[in-house]
Amino acid sequence: MPDKKPAIYLNSLSIDTLDTTCGVFIGVNRAVGWSSHSKSNSGLGTSGDNCQNNLNIVYDNDIIDTPMEKSDMFLNTEGSADTGSLDIKFDNIDVNVLDTQSLIAVGNNSQSAWDSHSKSNGGLGYLYGTASVASNVNTVQDNDIIDTPINDQDIKPVFIRRGCD
Question: Which residues of the chain have pLDDT under 50?
């Protein structure tokens, strides 16, 4: 007797914000080796509303700015995915914010070997929702000889399930 195909019933999906290396996986999925490397400078950062009369200064006088070396080695092992017994029912999924290396995974998912490296200078920082910022002076001084060296050389075991291709 043949296996029943996977079934996912989802009435609604609502996501307000996705940020840096985020994902929504519904069903049978394979996401291997996601990677995110970043460096960010922002005077005010992220705001919600009502920013007035601000002076934002970022001084990032680096000699070497964010050198990155990435040479991952993936070691694959294989198995069998049980795709015949999946029956999921949701009325809704509501998400406000998914941030760095976050995911919503519903179903038969294989998520292996993710990594993320980051550096951020925000000045004022992050304001969400109803925000009121007025008459501020923000200064970020980040003088480095080498700023944020990222050396990501590793061996990552990856389990690959047949049936997730």
Answer: 1, 164-165
Dihedral over alpha carbons 141, 144, 147, 149 (to 10 degrees): -150
* DSSP reduced 3-state for 136: coil
Amino acid occupying residue 135: S
How is residue 1 annotated by DSSP?
-
Q: How far apart (Å, rounded) are the C-alpha atoms in residues 75 and 114?
A: 14
Which of 17, 33, 49 shows the shortest CA–CA distance to 130? Answer: 49
DSSP E strands in the chain: the ranges are: 7-18, 23-32, 35-41, 51-52, 55-59, 64-65, 68-70, 73-80, 87-98, 103-112, 115-121, 133-134, 137-141, 146-147, 150-152, 155-162
Mean pLDDT score of the chain, rounded to an integer? 75
Residue whose C-alpha is closest to residue 107's, from 8, 19, 9: 8
Q: Which residues pair with 46 in a beta bridge?
A: 126
